[in-house]
């Protein structure tokens, strides 16, 4: 019997450890009777739209994430890593899932209002986050002046890429988030706190070294996330405005 590479063995052990508590998967071809081509139609429309506008891809991942953490369960970017992990475990996801899903932070943009404290007054000290890479600090200060509009008015808030050195740019998904974090160059403090966990650091190192492992686990974790608190039949509603319940629409 051939021995598995050490990184692959770690992934296998973690996957087996959380398998028993994993939520049941969604059913493929659920609409086979009512709309036989539903999945193919969705796939075709998404691919066609993404070919015209690549920003659709990180937007859809964000939508999936927010939808599954519906009604005040979404961890804040300012939440300590341990508390965010607890929030994930409360819905049946593991450290492996959290680490893999954070890999999507190589896509999209971050509002400057979310990181001003790291740049100018970390924890109210009047100084920058001492753990932040000096080169990253200089770049972000250049792009995010101290009087940047805060997230309360995000439509006018300046933005920066979530990963300034992503090879595929802000609209491509690869494993480049992990070497960035391991090098101490994460834009969000929450992302950088991934290295505060020795196990998360080992998982990040595995994903950094083996992109295929990341791709496979990211897909598995997205499916698990989509299986959280699934509503069926007449439960729930299809929102006319995704920002609020239909009953509160004016």
UniProtKB/TrEMBL annotation:
Keywords: Calcium, Disulfide bond, Heme, Hydrogen peroxide, Iron, Metal-binding, Oxidoreductase, Peroxidase, Pyrrolidone carboxylic acid, Secreted, Signal. Residues 1-246 form the Plant heme peroxidase family profile domain. Transmembrane segments: none annotated. It comes from the Eukaryota. Its cofactor is Ca(2+); heme b. GO terms for biological process: hydrogen peroxide catabolic process; response to oxidative stress. It catalyses: 2 a phenolic donor + H2O2 = 2 a phenolic radical donor + 2 H2O. Disulfide bonds join 112-144. It holds the Pfam family peroxidase. Ca(2+) binds at residues 106, 174. Residues 1-20 form the signal peptide. The keyword Lyase does not apply. It is found in: Secreted. Binds 2 calcium ions per subunit. Binds 1 heme b (iron(II)-protoporphyrin IX) group per subunit. The keyword Transport does not apply. InterPro entries: Haem_peroxidase, Haem_peroxidase_sf, Peroxidase_pln, Peroxidases_heam-ligand_BS. Belongs to the peroxidase family. Ascorbate peroxidase subfamily. Removal of H(2)O(2), oxidation of toxic reductants, biosynthesis and degradation of lignin, suberization, auxin catabolism, response to environmental stresses such as wounding, pathogen attack and oxidative stress. These functions might be dependent on each isozyme/isoform in each plant tissue. PANTHER family: PEROXIDASE (PTHR31517:SF59), PTHR31517. This is Plant heme peroxidase family profile domain-containing protein.
């Amino acid at each position: 019997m051939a021995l598995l590479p050490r990184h692959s063995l770690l992934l296998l052990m973690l996957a087996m450890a959380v398998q028993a508590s994993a939520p049941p998967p969604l059913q493929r071809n659920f609409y086979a009777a009512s709309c036989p081509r539903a999945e193919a139609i969705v796939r075709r429309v998404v691919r066609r739209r993404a070919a015209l506008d690549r920003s659709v891809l990180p937007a859809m991942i964000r939508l999936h994430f927010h939808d599954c953490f519906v009604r005040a369960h979404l961890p804040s970017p300012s939440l300590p890593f341990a508390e965010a992990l607890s929030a994930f475990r409360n819905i049946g996801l593991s450290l492996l899932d959290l680490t893999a899903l954070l890999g999507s932070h190589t896509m999209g943009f971050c509002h400057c209002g979310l990181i001003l404290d790291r740049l100018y007054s970390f924890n109210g000290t009047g100084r920058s986050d001492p753990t932040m890479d000096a080169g990253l600090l200089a770049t972000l200060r250049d792009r995010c002046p101290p009087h940047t509009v805060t997230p309360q008015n995000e439509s006018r808030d300046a933005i920066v890429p979530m990963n300034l050195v992503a090879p595929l740019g802000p609209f491509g998904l690869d494993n480049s988030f992990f070497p960035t974090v391991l090098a101490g160059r994460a834009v969000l403090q929450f992302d950088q706190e991934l290295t505060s966990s020795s196990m998360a650091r080992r998982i990040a190192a595995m994903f950094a070294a083996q992109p295929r492992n990341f791709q496979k686990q990211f897909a598995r974790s997205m499916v698990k996330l989509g299986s959280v608190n699934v509503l069926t039949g007449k439960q729930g509603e299809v929102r006319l405005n995704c920002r609020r319940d239909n009953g509160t629409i004016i």
